[in-house]
Design brief:
Elements: H1 3-11, H2 15-25, E1 43-46, H3 58-64, H4 78-89, E2 109-114, E3 119-123, E4 128-133, H5 138-144, H6 149-153, E5 156-162, H7 164-171, H8 174-196, E6 200-201, H9 209-216, E7 223-231
Antiparallel strand pairs: 1-4, 2-3, 2-5, 3-4, 5-7, 6-7
Helix pairs in contact: 3-8, 4-8, 5-9, 7-8
Bound molecules: flavin mononucleotide (FMN).
Length: 235
């Protein structure tokens, strides 16, 4: 199917059908629950400590949130990227609790970040990121996202992936629902944090799972659920 066709299906609502078909196949081949290690990180980045106070209220951020698909050329700072990663999956409790709720506190989500400089994988423990590639993968990622221009035009694309087996180990088939709900929580955290920082973005569901996994060289247990380009709005 051509990208433009899938985009039309998304915009006409039919993408829901595509999404459901894709989802039903996923948990039937659960990988090892403990296959979370990513081999061969090039480098580890200690992220700046996230801040817990901001300039705008939650209510103002909610009021202003709108999907934005066009961005200026301005890049994001490491401080901004750090804050956005923390909002998505950062640890906020001694026992490991995070910014987003998780069924059974099993934390099935793994977050990747594509920038013009590198591909990062966020490590909530220690608030660090491992650098998996120093290439700009945005052109390839855009192709995997059916030529969605918001992906290429953004200075940062967050990719929320899921390891279904972590949740299925306790909740069985119902775990699939929980994982998808959790991706929504994490995505909204990210979008609201972006808004609070004066940034904007859009959650993208229309992409080829296989192509995104190939571009990011994801371990086989990780399924991409959301691409979320973030930047300074040009709209
Ligand atoms: C699950 C989901 C998938 C989405 N996928 C796409 C997408 O593939 N492409 C896109 O341009 N927008 C996508 N969106 C954004 C919606 O089009 C957008 O949220 C909607 O038009 C409402 O506008 P608002 O976000 O500004 O309130 C998606 C939103 C959700 C919740």
């Amino acid at each position: 199917m051509r990208g433009s066709q899938v985009r039309r299906m998304y915009h006409s609502g039919l993408a829901l059908v595509v999404g459901l078909v894709a989802c039903t196949g996923r948990p039937t081949t659960p990988p090892d629950a403990d296959s979370s290690a990513v081999p061969g990180p090039v480098e580890m980045v200690d992220l700046p400590a996230p801040r817990s106070q901001g300039a705008v209220s939650l209510e103002e951020t909610l009021l202003a949130r709108r999907s934005v698909r066009a961005f200026t050329d301005q890049g994001l700072t490491l401080v901004e990227l750090s804050q956005l990663l923390w909002a998505t999956q950062g640890i906020t409790a001694d026992w490991g609790g995070r910014t987003a709720p998780s069924a059974g506190a099993l934390y099935p989500l793994e977050v990747y970040l594509v920038t013009p400089d590198a591909l990062y994988h966020y490590l909530p423990e220690g608030h660090r990121a491992e650098v998996l590639s120093d290439e700009d993968l945005r052109i390839e990622l855009t192709r995997a996202a059916l030529d969605e221009p918001a992906v290429y035009g953004a200075p940062a694309v967050f990719v929320i992936t899921a390891v279904y087996a972590r949740t299925a180990a306790k909740y069985g088939e119902r775990g699939e629902r929980y994982v998808h709900l959790e991706a929504g929580h994490a995505a909204q955290n990210l979008l609201l944090q972006a808004g609070a920082l004066g940034l904007a973005g859009v959650p993208i569901g229309a992409f080829s799972d296989d192509d995104v996994a190939r571009v990011l060289d994801l371990p086989p247990d990780r399924v991409p659920l959301y691409l979320i380009p973030i930047g300074h709005s040009a709209e």
